[in-house]
Design brief:
Largest interface: A-B, 31 and 22 residues
Number of helices of chain B: 8
CATH class of chain A: Alpha Beta
CATH superfamily of chain A: P-loop containing nucleotide triphosphate hydrolases
Number of helices of chain A: 9
Structural class of chain B: mainly alpha
Radius of gyration of chain B: 21 Å
Oligomer: heterodimer
Strand order of the largest sheet of chain A: 6-7-8-3-9-10
Helix content of chain A: 25-40%
Number of strands of chain B: 0
Largest sheet of chain B: none
Shape of chain A: globular
Helix content of chain B: over 70%
Number of domains of chain B: 1
Distance between the termini of chain B: 50 Å
Order of helices and strands of chain B: HHHHHHHH
Strand content of chain A: 15-25%
CATH architecture of chain B: Orthogonal Bundle
CATH topology of chain B: MetI-like fold
Number of domains of chain A: 1
Bound molecules: adenosine-5'-diphosphate, magnesium ion
């Protein structure tokens, strides 16, 4: 049982000010192996900022980041690069490299960061693309892919690095509704396969079904946390539940 | 009437000799100038505060002074500092210095047009900033800058004719000497003009081929 509760990623009292405003206020987060933590909260709550502070794309002003029991010295450039290879990130707007084919998008970091040769890197890239159902799209450029396919390439690109944990920042928010399902299906398979993930999303049904813990964020503070069952139980009276209900109502309105 | 004998026996041999020198100026200046322009553009966008400022000053200086004056400086002023060039070397150096500055303007704009999202994605994969610039940003920026840089190379072909100012005997220089020897200015310079036109035409083909060869679907020179 000790294995299951082992903390892979530990975020301790991260704070960040931007433009003279406190965007994150002492956010802490412990992620055990195989967990899926879901960050929810209104737009502007600080979810993206928190996720980007975890891999220091935005340098936090204070706080500690631990991976596998090792504290990250986040101003050590070399250590930070090594840390980032272990922490995958999926962005809302995909951020594929526009000049590279799907397989080269996946292979480029294998070659340049992990030092793999071209042949092995491409072979690994094709395997990862196969895993997200894109084996036949390997030679296409980003502009030739749909949004859902782009996001799956981005997931394959992160997976190829063999990350310990993956951070996902609203991976389906930029997608047309009919493309959301294919991306969520890939993430669901990852969760079931035991991948450790922290994900910001507005997909409440997905969160309810798969999250090991939901964290509700508002104005830079994590104000509620708990299992989906606890936070979303009928009559729980939580902010999370109120937010959930509002999202559902909005969904019903736009559907009707 | 076209005096074929004059063209065959005097004009073509002289201008062909000049053409070789012109090409020996244009080809290396075009290639090295472009590479240096990319490097300068990268420094001007991603360099530290001081290198960036120096790069900007350099570019302003080159852009603000006529190329003829730069040529004179390299050929006649540098020897006072103990640096000597033969006419060919002086012309080649000033063309490289000049076109690097102009290329860097196009490259700089193209570098700035690459989305920050891709930079963040590269960093998130563990790439250093240098790797990100080299493997992600520059390949895209170079493609986007290619039409502008191509234009610069077309200009280079024409301003290479200034090399005769420092007695480098390229196409223009040969033409000038022949014309004043024979007093047949119009015929000689008609031919000189045709040679430049031919070079520009060929260069345009090559540049168009390069653009098509490196084109990526959906990745235009926006
Ligand atoms: N560079 C910045 N300068 C100032 N404020 C910023 C900057 N980036 C984000 N913010 C602010 O931080 C807050 C949180 O943003 P974000 O993390 O993107 O929220 P979320 O992802 O939850 O929608 C927002 O109010 C936003 O306006
Ligand atoms: Mg966000």
């Amino acid at each position: 049982m000790m294995q299951n509760t082992e903390n892979v990623l530990r975020i301790h009292e991260i704070s960040k000010n931007l433009g003279g405003k406190a965007i994150l206020k002492s956010c802490s987060l412990d992620v055990a192996r195989g967990e899926l933590k879901v960050l929810i909260g209104p737009s502007g709550a600080g979810k993206s900022t928190l996720l980007q502070c975890i891999n220091c794309l935005i340098q936090p002003d204070s706080g500690e980041i631990w991976l596998n029991g090792q504290q990250l010295r986040r101003h050590d450039k070399k250590e930070l690069c090594a840390f980032r290879t272990q922490v995958g990130m999926i962005f809302q707007d995909f951020n594929l490299f526009d000049h590279l084919t799907a397989e080269a998008n996946v292979a480029v970091a294998l070659r340049k960061v992990k030092g793999m040769n071209r042949h092995d890197a491409l072979q690994r890239a094709r395997e990862e693309l196969g895993r997200v159902g894109l084996a036949r799209r390997a030679a296409l450029y980003p502009a030739q892919l749909s949004g859902g396919q782009k996001q799956r390439v981005a997931i394959a690109r992160a997976l190829a690095m063999d990350p310990t944990v993956i951070l996902l920042d609203e991976p389906t928010s930029a997608l047309d509704p009919e493309l959301v399902g294919e991306v969520l299906a890939v993430i669901r398979d990852l969760a079931r396969g035991g991948m450790t993930m922290v994900m910001a999303t507005h997909q409440m049904d997905f969160a309810r079904a798969l999250a090991t813990e939901i964290l509700f964020m508002e104005q830079g503070v994590i104000i509620e946390r708990g299992t989906p069952d606890a936070l979303l139980a009928a009559g729980a009276g939580t902010r999370t539940q109120a937010f959930f209900t509002r999202l559902q109502d909005m969904g019903d309105e736009s559907a009707s | 009437m076209i005096d074929t004998a004059f063209y065959m026996q005097e004009v073509l041999p002289a201008l062909n000799k000049g053409l070789l020198i012109s090409l020996a100026l244009i080809v290396p200046a075009g290639i090295i100038g472009f590479v240096c322009g990319v490097a300068l553009g990268v420094i001007r966008v991603f360099g530290g505060a001081l290198p960036r400022k120096l790069g900007d000053w350099y570019t302003s200086l080159i852009r603000g002074v006529p190329l003829a004056v730069q040529l004179m400086m390299v050929y006649y002023a540098l020897p006072h500092c103990g640096i000597y060039f033969d006419p060919y070397g002086a012309a080649l150096l000033s063309f490289i210095l000049c076109s690097a500055a102009y290329h860097s303007e196009y490259i700089r704009g193209a570098l700035l047009s690459i989305s920050q999202g891709q930079v963040r994605a590269a960093q998130a994969l563990g790439m250093t900033m240098a790797q990100t610039v080299l493997w992600i940003i520059v390949p895209q920026a170079a493609r986007r800058a290619l039409p502008g840089c191509g234009n610069e190379i077309i200009y280079l072909i024409k301003y290479s004719s200034l090399a005769y100012l420092v007695t480098c005997m390229e196409l223009m220089g040969e033409g000038k000497v022949l014309a004043s020897d024979t007093f047949r200015y119009m015929e000689v310079f008609l031919a000189v003009g045709a040679y430049y036109l031919a070079m520009v035409t060929v260069a345009t083909w090559i540049l168009r081929w390069l653009e098509q060869h490196y084109a990526i679907p959906g990745f235009g020179s926006r």
